[in-house]
Task: structure prediction
Amino acid sequence: MTSQNPASFAAHALGRRSLLKGALAAAGVAALPTLAGCSTSKSGGSAPSNAVSFGCNAAVPEPKGAYQTLFTAAKKSTGLTVDVNWVDHNTFQNNITTYLQGNPQDVYTWFAGERMQYFAGQGLASNVNDVWKVIGSSYSDAMKAQSKGADGNYYFVPFDYYPWAVFYSKSLWASKGYTAPTTWDQFITLAKKMKTDGLIPLAFTDKDGWPAMGTFDYLNMRINGYEFHINLMRTGQGWNTPKVAAVFDQWKQLIPYYSPGFLGLTWQEGANQILNKQAGMMVLGLDQIGTIFTGSNANDLGFFAFPEIDSANGQDSVEAPIDGFMVSKSPKNSSGANKLLEYLGTAAAQQVWLGSNPADIATASGVDTSKYTKPQASAISLISSAKHLSQFMDRDTLPSFADPVMLPAIQQFLSSPNNVSSLLSNLDAQAKTIWATNG
Amino acid sequence: MSAIPLSPHRRRKRLMRYTKRDRTALTLMAGVPLLLSIAFVWLPALATVALSFFNWTGIGGFSDMKAAGFENYRIIFTIYPQFPPAIEHNLLWLGVFFFIPAPFGLFLAVQLNKQIRASRIYQSILFLPVVLSLALVGFMTELVFSPTQGLVNNLTGHAGQNNLIDWLGNPRLNIWAVLIMACWRQTGYVMILFLAGLKSVDPSLQEAASLDGANEWQAFRHVVWPALRPINIVVVVVTVIESLRAFDIVYIINQGTNGLQLLSTLITANIIGETSRIGFGSALATILLVISLAFVLPYVYTTFRKDNRS
Result:
C-alpha cells in the first residue's frame, strides 16, 4: 500500500470511521457547488498563466516544509504561483482512482514504472513530451525508461529516489572486522559468523507486510534476472514455475538468521536493531533507514548491494523506487504545468527540495554531491552502476495483486516456509483471475 | 421495546384520535428516518449485492463494468486463501464474546449491584474501556503485546532473543492477544447493560425469595434472571453486532493479515486502494451481509411475533 511512507501508521490509525467522515466531508463539499465554483473561477479566471494547481501527497511536516521551500524557489525562477492541495500520503494513494477521475490538480505527485503506466493507459494523465525535450539531457536511460508509458510517450517527470540495499552500522562492522560480501556464499558465511558473535545477523521485520517484498524482488532479480522479474510483475504469468519456487527455496536459507518475532515487528524496530548494534545487516530502503540514522549517525550508515546469486545476472539490477510528478488529463493551465515541471526536473530544484534530507537522492544529474551524506553519495554510485532499475513490488505489479494477494502470501511463507508448492499454485490461480479482470 | 400491549382494533381507534397535525408530525418522524435509512443503508446495500456480480476497477462508468456472474463468489470459495481464516476468526470472535465477556459482564454487574462500598469507582474503572475507540484499543494492544518492547513480554522476561513470544506476529497467537483486549472492552459494555437491567428488577422480589428460603443462586436463577429477559436480548444483539463489525483493532495492528483476517478487513483490502477490485470486494461484503441477516432476521422475527401476540 504505502510502502515508502514512514508515517503510514498514522494513516492506518484512522480506520473506518475517518473513512466515513471523509466520505461525509466529501459529500458536504459536493453539496456546496456554488462555493466550489467560486474558488475555481477565481484561481482559473484572474491569473490563468501564473498559477498551477498541485496535488501533493506530503501533508506531514517533514516533506511538506521542503515542498514549501521548493515552491517559493519555483516562484522566483519561473514566476509561477503553485496552488497546493496537501493530502496525507496514504489517503492520496488510496483515493487516486477517484481523485484522477474527479477534478484533480494540474500536476500531482506519483510513482514511476507500472504505477505511472497504468493511469497513463487509462487516459488519466497528459503526456509531458515537451518537458522532456528540455530536461532530457540530465537523465539516464534507465530513468527515461521508467518515465515512459506503454505507448512510448513520456508521462512522468522523476524527482527523487532512493535505493534498496543491505544496510549496516559501519562502526559495528569496524569493531568486529566484517567486510561486505558480494556473493551469496560469503553472505551466508558472514551471517553465520554474526550469529556466533551474538548478533542478530539479519534484522528483518514484516508485521506491516510490505518490507519483505524488497527481499523477494532482489532474490528474484539475482536468481532469474531482471527481465523475468519485471515480466512476472507486469503480466502475472509464471508464478507456478520452478523459477519462482527457486526464489522461495533460496529465501528459506535466510529465515534462521532473521530477527526473532519478525512477523510482529515494524521496520522501525528493525532499523533500530541496526542503530543499536544488536543486528548486523538489514535489507531495506535508504528512504526508511535514512530517517533512523540521522544527525551524527548519518555517516555511520553503510550498505552493500544485495549479493550475487547467479553470475549470469551478477548485481546488475537495483531496486530504486522513483517519486515524481504527472500532469492530469485536462489541466487548467497546461503551459504553466509544463513550465513548472521543466523547473522541477532540474538538479537545482531537486537540491533545494533535498536540503539536508539524508534519505533520498536527486534524480537529475549535475547535483552538487558535496552536500550529500556518505550513504547518499554511495547510493549514487550504486544506482549509476546498475543496468536495470526496479520500482518495488507494489509499484511494479498491479496494486490489487500486490497488497491483497502477495503481501499475505509472503507472510504465510515466512511463518510456514515448507508449503511453497501449494502457495505458488494458489498465487498462480489468483494472479490469473486478477489479470483477467484488470488487464 | 416494551410497548403498551394494544389490540389492533384499539390501536386503530387511537390513531383516529390523532389530530391532523399529530399525524403530520408522526409521518415526518417516521418518514424522514425511513427515507434516510433507505437512501444510506438499503440502497448502498442492494447496490453492493448488484456490484458483486460485476468486475470493475473503479475507473469509468457503468459501461466499464463487466458482468461476472457468480465468478467472484467462486473465487472467494475456491482459491482465496484469506477467506477461510477470516470466517473462522469472525466466528471465533462471536463465540468468545458469547462465552467470556457476556457471562463475566453479568457476574460483575451482579456484584456491583450489591451496594458494596465504592461501587461507583469499580463501575467507572470497568466501564472506562468502553469509552475508548477500538482503534485506540488496537494501539494499546501493540503497546501491551509487542514482542520486543511490549509490556507482557518484558514483565515475564520473554522479550529476549532466545525465548521471545511473538504475540503479534505468530498467526496462531495474535488473534488471542487481540481477543483479550477486545474482551476487556466488551466486558464493561455488557456489564453496564446488565447493571441497568438489574436496577430495574424490583428488590422486593428478591427479598421475598430469600424470605421463602431461597439461597443467593436460587434467587438469581428463578427471580432475577427471568426479569432480565429484555436485557438478555439486547446483550445478544450487541454481542453479534460487535463481533461482526470488528475491524479497527486488527486494522491498526497489521491491516488484518497474517492471522488477524476478518471479513471486514478483506473487504477494505480489496476495495480501498489504487486499482480496486470493486466487484470482488462487494462479493465479500455481500457474504458478510448474509451472515448478519442470519443473526438479525430471527431476532426481528421473534420480536415482532411477540408484539403481535400480546
